[in-house]
Amino acid sequence: MAELRFSALREVFNRVPVEYETPSKVISKYYGADVFNLHKMEHYLSKEAFGVVKKAIEEGKSLSRQEADQVAIGLKAWAMERGATHFTHWFHPLTDGTAEKHDGFLEMGENGHVVENFSGAVLVQSEPDASSFPSGGIRNTFEARGYTAWDVSSPVFIVGTTLCIPTIFVSYTGEALDYKAPLLKALSELDKAAVEVCQYFDKDVKKVYGTLGIEQEYFLIDEALYYARPDIVLADRTLMGHQSSKDQQLADHYFGSIPERVMCFIKDFECSAHKLGIPVKTRHNEVAPNQFECAPLYEEVNLAVDHNQLLMDIMKRVARKHKFRVLFHEKPFAGINGSGKHNNWSMATDTGVNLLSPGKNPKTNLQFLTFLVNVIKAVHDSNELIRASVMNESNSYRLGGHEAPPAIISVFLGTYLTEMLESIARKVTDRKMTPAQKTELKLGIGKIPEILLDNTDRNRTSPFAFTGNRFEFRAVGSSANCSASMIVLNAAVAYQLKKFKVEVEQIIKKGRNKDEAIFQVLKKYILESEKVLFEGDNYSKEWHEEAAKRKLCNIPSVPESVKCYLTPGSRDVLIESGIFSEKELESRVEVEYEKFTKKVQIEARVLGDLAINHIVPTAIRYMTMLTDNVKGLKEVFNELEYERLASARKEMIITISDHISNIKKLVNDMIEERKKANVIEDSFKKAVTYEKKVKPFLEEIRSHIDKLELIVDNEIWPLPKYRELLFTR
Length: 729
Ligand code: ADP
Ligand code: MG
Hints:
Blueprint: H1 2-13, H2 27-30, H3 38-44, H4 47-59, H5 65-81, E1 86-90, E2 102-104, E3 106-108, E4 114-116, H6 120-124, E5 125-126, E6 146-150, E7 157-159, E8 162-171, H7 180-198, E9 208-222, H8 223-227, H9 230-235, H10 260-275, E10 280-285, E11 291-296, E12 299-300, H11 301-321, E13 324-327, E14 341-349, H12 362-381, H13 383-388, E15 411-412, H14 415-427, H15 435-446, E16 464-466, E17 471-473, H16 483-509, H17 514-529, H18 541-549, H19 558-562, H20 568-576, H21 582-636, H22 639-678, H23 683-711, H24 722-727
Parallel strand pairs: 1-8, 15-16
Antiparallel strand pairs: 1-2, 3-4, 5-6, 6-8, 7-8, 9-11, 9-12, 9-13, 9-14, 10-11, 14-17, 16-17
Helix pairs in contact: 4-5, 7-16, 10-11, 12-15, 12-16, 12-17, 14-17, 16-17, 21-22, 21-23, 22-23
The chain binds adenosine-5'-diphosphate (ADP) and magnesium ion.
């Protein structure tokens, strides 16, 4: 077995970088080449059809059949020119991946001749038999079909020879079965609510967009080592492995020079991304060895999410060419940093204003503070829901697990804004303010520096940090589809902005002027959401204690946290506004429980197998070597000398034997617990049981294996070790 490990290592030592040529040194020459963007639409569509699509994109509407037919003609022409032979509706089922089913353009024409055809009907809608996607009980087998419908706001693109049409995915009875449909609804809610509030400051604002820049962290390991680690192949993470003597202590990987082989991979996937109009811009080494990050320029939320999903797909594909595997798992290696997907989020108006960016005068700054405080209030009020949106099995090793940030969602503002909010809370009175008081307040907020970047962004431990002109939601997991967190965040802020408007109007009705009413409500919100603000070290023990004192919710359990989707508060945010129906929300939660259970189940099975048929036999082999050695000593040495020489070896034999016995017993016990859990009908209870009764075995079993790894002869250890996985490339 150890041969596999050593031959894998030899393979890695002999690797050479796979060189890659971009079509041109100037990115703008090929940027967007594989996308049917507005520019190409203008060229390939009739004037009429172009106008229709443009309007549909701007207004978030869908196309009629006739309109779609017009678009399909131009789209087919472009796609065939670029060598496409097939098309697919590309969608986001509730699996964290994307789905596609390819159909050829091929059709039987008259007289038995084959023709290429692509109609408006198949462009806008399709009916995949998608009975195997998770639906949380919405779909019965007799109505297994789902519908996909074109999301005009996300452009069509080509991958290889397939034309990909971004779509939403709904059931036969109309319920959403994907992430995109509710995301579009949440964004539309945010638009409506934010435009209303913007009207207090600028009557010209007609539309507000959520903006999102996603930093993507990932690990790379060599393909040969990947195949020698069944746990990574099957569970996306290492289920065993002793810590490497050196890993990230010296922080010498962070921002270090990117290794050449890795650089070739990065350039290659960036080129594919750029052709697909994904504006990847930043690349660097991350903290842990073999960990890296890339980030695009920010875009409108729906597009940014599509682009991130597509980017992950491209990265996986291109990695194979370079004999690498990308690990998007949140915690592929114990003991060193995990990976996240930082969601840099803000709101922008159609007048070109970033609503979370301080402006030039008291008026724009009051607008800025209004949106800032409303976001804080939303994070405070929907605290549990926001955590629920990022909690899942793999991210639980990163959030709330040991050696990881806590599962407490707090907001970091930086000293300047913290003081600013405190001063507003102090100065604003509920009585009618004097002109002098008002002037003082306005002068104060007029002074907010336009560039707050230097004052903030110091605290890298905060899960929700203000970084000068946006919030950075860092608790999102690296493997996640960001839609889940974006649905909740945008919905919570939309809900909050609606409440804000109502409260301000009530005060105005009592005869106060607009600014005073706004100040009063902001003051109230600042006081009400104070407890969610935290400037210190989120990883510290003190914060856990402090958060408990503040009664901030901290639920490290995944199913318990996911359950918070169903609290009355969460229902208000998600159902009242029509983002989900009651049935859709319940089914989603159901899907999450099931996903959790299945993932723990897979990990438990993989670990059980590896422990019994890889590790135990290896340990027995080494034990036999030691016993043979002891026997040999007995033959060669006299009694006295033998006793002295053999004692250390005998101790080793006993230690190894104890570990073997423990592993065998624990694996058996774990199987018994699984059997008991498997018969539980209720999916929540089942998930909780898997978490409480099965998951702890993973840690216990691995601790024995990891100790064996330190004792057993390196020559016969079957699996690549952490030092090999993390430092060989
Ligand atoms: P960091 O220093 O946090 O690692 P990066 O440069 O890696 O920063 O990523 C910052 C991300 O934030 C980029 O994707 C950037 O486009 C995005 N961003 C900047 N401004 C905004 C904004 N107004 N709204 C959303 N995202 C933004
Ligand atoms: Mg970064």
